[in-house]
Amino acid sequence: MKRLKYSIQSKASMYNLYILVTAFVILVSSACTKQLDVKDPNDPTFGVNVTNEAGITAYAMGSVYWNGFSYGDGWLGDSYFSLPWGYRELMGDVVGGGQGSNNQTTTMGVPDSFIADPANPSTTTFNNPSPQATGIIRGFNDPASTVNGNNALYYEWANMYAMINGCNLALEQLANIKTLTADKVKTVQAWCYWWKGFAYAELGSLYYAGLIEDKSSTIVSKFVDHNALIAESNKQLNLAMTTLTSIGNQGDYAAVIGALIPAQNQVGLGKAPSSAQWIRSINTMMARNILVNKLAPFVNGNLSATISKASIGVMGASDWADVIKYTTAGIQKGDYVFTGRSSTTNSFFSAGSGTVASICAQSNQNTTYKISERLVSAFGKGDARLANFSDADGVFYGDANTNTTRWSLLDGADKKLAGIPILGSKSPGAIEIYIGPSYEENALMAAEANIRTGAIATGTGLIDAVRTSQGAGVAKIASGVTAVQAMTELTNERYAALAFRGLSYFDARRWGWTYSTANGGGRYGATLIYNKVIYTNAKINYNFMDYWDVPNDELVKNPAATGSAATKNPNW
Of 551, 571, 572, 569, nearest to 211 (Cα)? Predict the structure, then answer.
């Protein structure tokens, strides 16, 4: 498949990246004002020179961490976790944008409208003159806008297909390396299957349609819908699981998995997982694929809310049962999982601007992303985790209204926060970025499934367990709460415990909050500041496109073949 035919400049002259000896594409980190300079990730010009174990592990590592998570993201920040995930945190209302349009970060998270005080709508109503779906997503979905850094749809697509292509290349090259034992080959194969499963999950959870690529550097023009992308993700994840299960020599496994993960990641919970721990991560990922791609509306306290004009179906009894099945076999507290950390050298994202959290970790008067009032309100009174935030810098009055906030994210390493997770920092290695799923996510998925199927006490017990594990220091949820009360606790805790993990938009979407109020959606009882007044019962009508159109950069170079799925979301 041909796509995005531009030139690329190597980072070799800027950083001494050891991965360059065998891997392929390293991108320029550039400031927001520089021209986008990217090369087709599926038409590489690098020469394959991988002939031994060290070569293939470095190659497979580069496919993921540098091609997948550092490809073409040199606009706002310098990685997948600062820009593509940034759009999700904007749409999930964990952060707001600053003043001015930087990669459309000011505009992507602005709702169609809100009423700050529903009792006085005539004086507290805001209407957005440029709706997200038509004014931003479709208004800038073209190659010219991509070159100018205004096409939000481009980045995730480029990252994940670069990762898929790199993993395909690694799998194809394995057959040429005769010095590997069978179990070392299986470990590399499981690595590639896992990350292909991750990439298809990211694509299928965000785009209305996409492409399935089984071979490297080939032309695929038949687009499939997002359900097929999720099915492909599950296929790859199952391949990873069966491959890991078949490994007999755990010493061979340990030698390879330790070489596949960058050294700076292998601290805390990011140490190389055992094969059993990795299998549990796969189960949690399978549960995520179900949960984030089905509706489970909880709008204005209504567990029976319905959404019209949605691109996904509703969670059914069998779906909830599957979530319980997978999470029961999923990540346990203390398991090693896939994380990322910055470092002073050889880092695939920088400490100061490589993640949404690090970009936020200073005064709200100076940051590109602004901590949302809605995020802070998700933490209950007395929650020790609130120590991550400060209102000492005053109010930032955003030009898009919902960006207005009292809150700044503290540099947790600088403030020496202890006993709770540090949410933000600009110090190298100080924050742990969960690239894949985590114990907290697994527990909260199980909690929601139990609440929804009548086991309320089991669900609230899991919420309490997550709060305890993060040092929240709050009282346990009272026994005998209703399902509505339990779900309110659950939605708040997912915002709090899983902040900056790229999941907030998917949660807000499946709960129905991002859909138009005219179609049964919206967010109610929200905290926001409007005209310098703090309101705590606001009604927000986001009306965000639930699944994005295919980037036109792709379609210009690779028109959809006959029989393809729709490449534009028909519901917007």
Answer: 551
- 303/190 Cα distance (integer angstroms): 39
Alpha-carbon separation of residue 335 from 17, 279, 442, 459, 468 (angstroms): 29, 11, 12, 21, 17
Instruction: Place 75 in a pLDDT band, splitting at 50, 70 and 90.
Output: confident
State yes or no: pLDDT of 107 exceeds 60: yes
**Residues in the chain, how many?**
572
Please report which helix (H) or strand (E) contains residue 467, including its range.
helix 456-469
Task: Between 557 and 44, name the one with better pLDDT.
Answer: 557
Short-list 330, 338, 341, 396, CA closest to 363: 396
At residue 544, does pLDDT exceed 50? yes
Q: What pLDDT score does 525 carry?
A: 98
Residue 203 and residue 491: Cα distance in Å, rounded? 24
CA-to-CA separations, 78 to 28, 66, 571, in angstroms, rounded:
9, 11, 33
Phi/psi region, residue 259 (left: phi>0; alpha: psi -120 to 50; beta: rest), is alpha
Q: What angle do CA 384, 385, 390 make, to 5 degrees?
A: 100
Q: Residue 542 and residue 538: Cα distance in Å, rounded?
A: 12
Q: What are phi and psi of 260, to 5 degrees?
A: -85, -20
* Model pTM above 0.85: yes
For residue 3, which of 571, 565, 560 has the smallest C-alpha distance?
Answer: 560
Mean pLDDT within 83-94: 96
| φ, ψ of residue 451 in degrees (nearest 5) | -60, -45
Radius of gyration, CA atoms only, the chain: 22
Residue 98 has what pLDDT? 79
Report whether 208 contacts 310 (CB < 8 A): no
The pLDDT confidence band at residue 274, using thresholds 50, 70 and 90, is very high
Contacts of 455 (CB under 8 A, 6+ apart): none
Average pLDDT, the chain: 90
Binning the chain into helix, strand and coil, the percentages to the nearest 5 are 40, 10, 50
Residue 533 β-bridge partners: 530
Nearest to 40 by CA among 556, 390, 418, 519: 556
**Residue labelled with tokens 């069966």:** 242
Map residue 225 onto helix, strand or coil: strand
Q: How confident is the model at residue 400 (pLDDT cuts 50, 70, 90)?
A: low
DSSP letters for 120-177: SHHHHEEE-SS-IIIIIITTT-SHHHHHTT--THHHHHHHHHHHHHHHHHHHHHHTT-
Residue whose structure tokens are 């950390």 = 341
For residue 534, the 8-state DSSP code is E
Q: Is 203 exposed, middle or buried (CB count within 10 Å of its CB: 0-12, 13-18, 19+)?
A: buried
Beta bridge partners of 408: 390
233, HSE (Cβ side, Cα atoms, 13 Å): 27
